[in-house]
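User: ok so my PI wants both of these folded by tonight, can you help

Assistant: No problem, let's get them done. Here's the first:
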Amino acid sequence: MCGVNFWTFAVLMVCLARSSVHAGLTKEEIATMLDITKPHLEECSKEHGVSLDNLKEIEDETNENFSCFMSCFLKKIEVFDEKGIFDPKKSKENARSFIKNEETLTLFDKVADECSKVNDAEVSDGIEGCERAKLLSDCWKEHLGKLM
């Protein structure tokens, strides 16, 4: 694993990329996240045949490549463990490396806690984490408005 203090900006980064939402983040915060996560995004995009240029178009209910790309990315940035389980505590800790606005951090923490429910969902792909990654992505997407 990468050993860097990132987090669920994996999900947030992909959600940002596909929704053009800036979620209360400054341009500098977004640029820093992109710089740090780009190698992982690129590696997982190659591994799963997902183009970073069209994330918005390929993400849908049935795109397994996108979901497995997300799982790969979340594992690389250590937001998912080796069993494909979301770690909201690590997500919140790592968010503090990027987000400086206390109000945004508080909202982020609430969304991370709310989205931890994905760990209770039954998934058929086990440690692959593709289905859980899709659930987490959907949860973040649903709650992104709270971060705006």
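One down. Here's the second:
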Amino acid sequence: MQTGLIFAVVLVFQLSCRGGWILCMTDETIIMPRIIREVSIQRCVAECLGLVDQKKLCNFSQVSGGVLGDKCPENEFFNAAPSKKVLCSYSVWSLNALPFHETPIIKVCDFVLYIDLLRFNPGNSTISIAESEYQQLKSTLQYARVAGIKNILEIGGWGSALLFSKVGSNESIRDNFGAQLKGLLSDYSFDGVFIKWLYPNCPENTDCGIYKLDDKVGVKNMMKDLYQILKPSRKLLFYFANLNSAFLTFSAGDIYSPIADFVDYFVMDSFGQAGRWSMSIDVPTNLKKLISFDFFKNKIKNNKDVVQKILILLNVGCLTFELKTPNAHKIGSGFVQKSNLPPLTSFADVCEAVRKNNFTVVKDITTQHYAYRDKVWYAFDDYQSLLEKARFLKSIDGAGFGLFNTDMDDAKNRCGCGKMPFLRMIGELLKGGECELDRCP
């Protein structure tokens, strides 16, 4: 079947290209390894259309076949990775003002994570849906289902560690919790659950919030039980264990391998390396830290099985700091711990601030793009920095990206880059597309 398909594709171009028979393929192409075969076919098509010179291969979208124009990276050949997944997270309130049909969500997001919709009762370990919010979202959920998006419910968070400890340590409570969760997912037609259990053991002299030292056993028991309960109905199980950074999480040891057989996706925080827990700007999406992924691999015993399930979390919102000293902007500079500035600023607000208020922009894909003026400092991503992150994701064979605060993208095109440019850039890099992106900021 595959051989016939390749022959049909080649034959179409042989017949249609300038009305002639352009024989740029050989029988050997069909038995080449998949990656080499794809590039060979791409080059054949490009040669057929007269798009190749002696120096470079012309760029075109692997999905649409369209030639990439001036708005796309020049002299750049980047293979899309449509098998990679994208998890988009939204607060319930934001989705009411963000209709799916007006955004690129359906073209990019494989999963949509709904935050603040599932309630966890600390008194009796019961869970329930916020009914009024759910009723407002019914049309959105239905639209997502029709579009092939998996709807995922989040449960847990910073204040839920002790509640999960209670569930994980008691078999009867685990059984009851799992039965409730299965019923809710079925009754409300959700496709999976995102367990946000912010544990585990903290490194010495580090305040990581409330946790219990024996939670590692509880996590395994709970994930195993949920897997057994949810698997027959083919519900997905996501697990997020990060504290204020993935580095702190893994410094406590390997917590993923023991549950790798039960979890569909691990979500790993890449942007919270320092945040409000640090005395200096140790920038959140710092690629030098991301690329030190070998640190994680050394901690994970079951490398391949775990890494291939990891969704690397990126922040759509721009981390915001108030500098201690005006214009002392370099990475590592001190910032005000108790600032009146919000910890995150929307993509559109940062774009407008940079354009209108004479911010200085510093770009370095090996560390972090940022903009500053006086005592205000924003971290941001653009196409080139996301391109590096996409390359990194592919190099480790990770599962994909999780987008945190997706509702902080530019949904109304205030920046002039089209609606939701961050999401569209991720879509182009991972899944291919029309590549009609205006560069922002």
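The radius of gyration is 24 Å. The longest strand covers residues 150-157. Good luck tonight!
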